[in-house]
Amino acid sequence: MTTMFELGLAIDGFTPAADIADQARAAEAGGVDTLWIATHLFLRDPVALGATALAATRKLKVALMAVSPYAMHPVHAAMGAATLDELYPGRVVLCLGVGAPGDQDAAGIERPRPLATLREAIAVCRGLFAGDPIDHRGDIFNVTQRKLVNAPCDIPIVLAASGPKMLALAGSDADGVIISGATSAPFVENCLARVNEAASGRRIMNSGIVYTGIDGDGKAGADSLRRTLGFILRGAHHADNVRMGGGSLDQQALRDAYAAENWDDVDRFVTDDVVTRHAACGDAARVRTRLAEYHRAGLDHVIVSGITDPAEISAVLSAITTGN
Predict the structure, then answer these.
(1) Domains (ranges, CATH) in the chain?
(2) DSSP string of 8-47?
(3) What pLDDT, in 10s, does the model give residues 132-169?
């Protein structure tokens, strides 16, 4: 049995760097096309992890996800991706995004004009990847008459997006879009409609993260995801996601519980129904059904997340792809 969609795996950078080689090997052996390595300030560096993952595997692609031009100048982001591509041609993806506000606040990083900033970051990286000297004179970035020494290189640029304007930017300017985890399938479908409308017939790779947990009765899988989903869904910008998912969630109460570190209340607010609507958990058959729902919502590339142990990665991927 094989899936109808490309399969990805997201790694968040919380686990020790020494684990990445085994994680990557388990992903490749389990049928994963692309390993998406998160870029979180104060955690582990994605370029170093990406290099290790690429060296440990034969065909696995690595996506640097989602590099923020507020924290890393797009020239530097392009350099990192191009250097990996020089070592492992055709196996690197660069994903750009605004970044996590809390982490950037902690680092004293301001985030003015996100739409213009990401539009120019895409243009700078694309110009550098083309190989010729670029002359970008924008409102945010200025890069004049310089080129990458190891370009041209064929590196897709993916945009992490959720708001209407950023989704439209992904469709008009990027090679692909990635939708964050904890999103309901109807919300994903709504997001991708905005992307595809802006693409005006241009081919866009639609990717999305789906938190995944497999167990016999579904309870342990739900429990393992409850606080992760709660952390994401507490954000006010997820109101439409919650509404389209069709469930009921008191986001303000959830925010208050997280702020107070009242984990019993967090677990109580993120009910089994919320988990069911915003993740893929349960036995193997149920998880395959849920992932197929996200594919039908428009995802070409379904990225499972929430699993980091290499043995668990192997077991979950085997259950997804073979039913075992």
Answers:
(1) 6-214+283-322 (3.20.20.30), 216-282 (no CATH)
(2) EEEE-S-S-GGGHHHHHHHHHHTT-SEEEEE--TTS--HH
(3) 999 999 999 999 999 999 999 999 999 999 899 999 99
